Amino acid sequence: MSLMPQFHSGGLSAVNRLLDNYENMFSNPRDIQTYAPYFDIRETEKAYYLDGDLPGVQQKDLEIEFEDEHCLNVKAHSERESTIEKGSWRASERLVGDLRRTFNFPTAIDQDHTHAHLKNGVLSLEVPKSTTTHSKKKVDILD
Tell me, what's the pLDDT at 30? Predict the structure, then answer.
């Protein structure tokens, strides 16, 4: 995944929604799927700022890890209660299951000073730019 801007309104988004709806007609609503959450990405002279919606994800189910000095992985899992007392599913549209998003930065990133916060289903990351290289490292998520 590059840091190129993505706009989710307009011409192709309607086509993408139609294709998603068509695909969902043939899948079991209880199937766990992997999806890539949407993020807003800002860049300043000194850092990258990422804000992504992770509804239903709890901190214990979230992992943020550096692949190398240019690559950051966000992985998580969300579930919904599987017990239904009465009735049957008419629609199942909420995203549940595994999520994964990889960010490839054009400049080296400072792994030691990267901060993550998860609040009200929104993950916020501050990823400072760096000129030094590091080995693979995990990021702690603060309350």
Answer: 45
